[in-house]
Specification:
about 60 residues; 3 strands; about 40% strand; mainly beta; 1 helix
């Protein structure tokens, strides 16, 4: 099976932006699939009603 990813998609995969975690985030969400082990975690920092920083961590298959 051949998957035709765009150059932009491959670029984001190879050089992800906003990856990591935020110390003491204002908002946090985590979701996963217990069957296959995939997991996503998101953190956000807000200042004066505006998003200041967003980070994510991803575990599992692409």
């Amino acid at each position: 099976m051949s998957l035709n990813y765009t150059k932009k998609t491959i670029s984001h995969f190879l050089k992800p932006k906003n990856i990591g975690s935020i110390k003491n985030p204002d908002g946090y969400a985590e979701i996963g699939n217990m069957v296959c082990g995939d997991q996503l975690a998101f953190g956000v920092k807000v200042e004066k009603g505006k998003v200041k920083d967003v980070k994510f961590l991803s575990f599992g298959c692409a």
